[in-house]
Amino acid sequence: MPEHRTKIGVAITAFEAAPFIGACLSSLLASRDVDLRVVVVDNASPDDTCGAIRRWAVDHLDRAAFTEAEADAIACTDSWLTLLKSPVNGGFAHGTNRALELLMADPSIALFWVLNPDCEARHDTAAHYARAGTDGNFALMGGRTLYANHPDTVQTDGGRVSRWTGVCQSVNLGKPAADTAPPPVETLDFITGANCVASRAFLEQAGLMAEHYFLYYEEVDWAMRRAALPLRHVPEAIVHHLAGATIGSGTHQRRPSAFANYFNYRNRMRFLHRFSPQSVPLALVHAAAKAGQLILKGAWDEAGGLARGALGLSPPRAVRARLSAEAQALAFGAKSSVRVRTH
């Protein structure tokens, strides 16, 4: 009898991903010893992301069947690659949830890999995840994420979050991969949303990602809802990540943009209000100190984004201008504070 191959569903949310989505898909197609079903949700990208995906699909039709549909117009798919086109940029969780909903309709998929479009997996990454997640008795599972431009340097081995300030820490950030041991999994609080595998048991228990953050803290919130299901870390499952290629996230060598600061600090407060409300005053003091540090460095725009986000104010004009009018209504409107998706 042929050997059973684990089927993994891959959920990718893309926005302005034309320069790198093809490399991401090619790395997944090279995966060995597993069957993948990849769903890419394009969040109304103004660039040629959809065109780049179509061209990649045409070039690989001999190995990867392709389906394209509007985000809410398809209930199931058996194609290797499915492109869902969202009419509006609803944020990271919105796109991820649409992909997860479609993948969950296939009962043969037990593992759901949330992956950023600026990531490239090694040929054995998916197989390592499949072996580590065979029993399905876990919530979220992560591997070692390295910087794509510095492949000998760790971006994250998982995350920790302070219950006092809401500050998130990427474990082993900036450390040399060859000389750095993976962390004990019991010391982790969450798995990075750039490279994270969820079990079906977790999705059925906790539901999908909360959409009220729009950007940042979705995966931290998700992990906090895991109840008794544990996290897992699979250091052999390696992914290379460009890290904030679209939104200007900070790295160990780059300061976060005003756009990144606004959502990061706004969502930090939303997260604390939900999971540790007594810590909000201290978190505001911490945010004020960070804004002061940026001002002393002359980074006024970044400080402004931070301060307005932490205080729950409307975003700076430059931050708002990064999004379409439809996306602004979701990212900054009143409904964005209460909308949470369940399966």
Q: Could you characterize what this model shows?
A:
- The C terminus is likely disordered.
- It is built from 11 helices and 12 strands.
- Strands 1, 2, 3, 4, 5, 6, 7, 8, 11 and 12 form a 10-stranded mixed sheet that branches.
- It starts with 6 loop residues before the first strand and ends in an 11-residue tail after the last helix.
- It is of the alpha/beta class and 343 residues long.
- Helix 1 runs parallel beside helix 2 and helix 7 packs antiparallel against helix 8.
Question: Which helices and strands occur, and which strands form pairs?
Answer:
Blueprint (H helix, E strand, L loop, with lengths): L6 E8 L6 H9 L5 E8 L6 H11 L6 E5 L10 E5 L6 H13 L6 E5 L3 E3 L3 H8 L7 E8 L2 E7 L2 E3 L6 E3 L24 E5 H7 L11 H7 L7 E10 L16 H18 L4 H17 L3 H11 L6 H4 L4 H8 L11
Helix pairs in contact: 1-2, 7-8, 7-9, 8-9
Quick take:
This protein has helices spanning 21-29, 49-59, 92-104, 125-132, 200-206, 218-224, 258-275, 280-296, 300-310, 317-320, 325-332; strands at residues 7-14, 35-42, 66-70, 81-85, 111-115, 119-121, 140-147, 150-156, 159-161, 168-170, 195-199, 232-241.
In oligomeric terms, what are we looking at? single chain
Named at the architecture level, the CATH assignment of the largest domain is Alpha-Beta Complex
In total, the number of domains comes to 2
If helices are DSSP runs of H or I spanning 4 or more residues, what is the number of helices? 11
Might you state the CATH topology name of the largest domain? Spore Coat Polysaccharide Biosynthesis Protein SpsA, Chain A
Q: Tell me the span between the first and last alpha carbons.
A: 35 Å
The structure class reads alpha/beta
In sequence order, what are the helices and strands, one letter per element?
Answer: EHEHEEHEEHEEEEEHHEHHHHH
Radius of gyration: 19 Å
> What helical percentage do the residues reach?
25-40%
Which sheet architecture does the biggest sheet show? Answer: 10 strands, mixed
Low-confidence stretches at least 5 residues in length (pLDDT < 50)?
335-343
Annotation, overall tally of beta strands: 12
Q: Shape from CA axes?
A: globular
Look at the structure and give the CATH class of the largest domain: Alpha Beta
Strand-residue fraction?
A: 15-25%
Overall mean pLDDT stands at 93
